[in-house]
C-alpha cells in the first residue's frame, strides 16, 4: 500500500543466501517510492504510520520485527532512500532458538 503508491507496477526482489556465519540471510528489495530519512528509524515501532486515517494500523513491520528477533532469534535491518526503493535484510539462525528470548517491555523494542 505504501511502497508503490501512485505506481502502475513495481518490482519486488527476494534473495536468500547462507553465508559462512551459520545464519540465513534474506534480502527483500523493491523499486518503490522509498522511505523518508526521518521515518526510517521508526518503521519498526508499534503503530507508527505515515498514513494515519488512510487504512492500516502501523503494526505490519512491528510484527515482522517481533517475529524475526523475539521468536526466531534473528536480526532485521531496513535501508531506503526516497525515490530509490527499500530493502529489508533479515539474518536468521538456521535453527530457531530452543527457548524464546525474553520479551522486551511493550513499546521498548530494541534495535
Q: Strand order within the widest sheet? A: 1-2-4-3
Distance between the termini: 25 Å
Determine the CATH topology of the domain at 20-89: Heat Shock Protein 90
Q: What is the CATH homologous superfamily assignment of the domain at 20-89?
A: Histidine kinase-like ATPase, C-terminal domain
Q: Gyration radius, to the nearest Å?
A: 15 Å
Stretches where pLDDT is under 50 for at least 5 consecutive residues are 104-111
Going by CATH, the architecture of the domain at 20-89 would be 2-Layer Sandwich
The top-level CATH class of the domain at 20-89 is Alpha Beta
Please tally the β strands and state the result: 4
Shape: globular
From N to C, what is the helix and strand string? EEHEE
- Output the structural class: alpha+beta
Strand content: 25-35%
Biggest sheet features: 4 strands, antiparallel
Q: What percentage of residues falls in helices of 4 or more residues?
A: 10-25%
Kindly report the average pLDDT value. Answer: 80
Q: Given the structure, what is the number of helices?
A: 1
Amino acid at each position: 500500500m505504501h511502497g508503490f503508491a501512485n505506481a502502475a507496477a513495481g518490482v519486488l526482489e527476494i534473495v536468500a543466501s547462507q553465508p559462512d556465519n551459520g545464519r540465513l540471510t534474506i534480502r527483500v528489495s523493491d523499486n518503490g517510492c522509498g522511505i523518508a530519512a526521518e521515518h526510517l528509524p521508526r518503521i519498526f515501532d508499534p503503530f507508527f504510520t505515515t498514513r494515519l486515517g488512510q487504512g492500516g494500523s502501523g503494526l505490519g513491520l512491528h510484527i515482522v520485527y517481533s517475529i524475526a528477533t523475539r521468536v526466531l532469534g534473528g536480526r532485521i535491518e531496513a535501508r531506503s532512500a526516497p525515490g530509490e526503493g527499500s530493502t529489508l535484510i533479515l539474518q536468521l539462525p538456521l535453527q530457531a532458538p530452543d527457548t524464546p528470548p525474553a520479551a522486551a517491555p511493550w513499546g521498548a523494542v530494541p534495535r
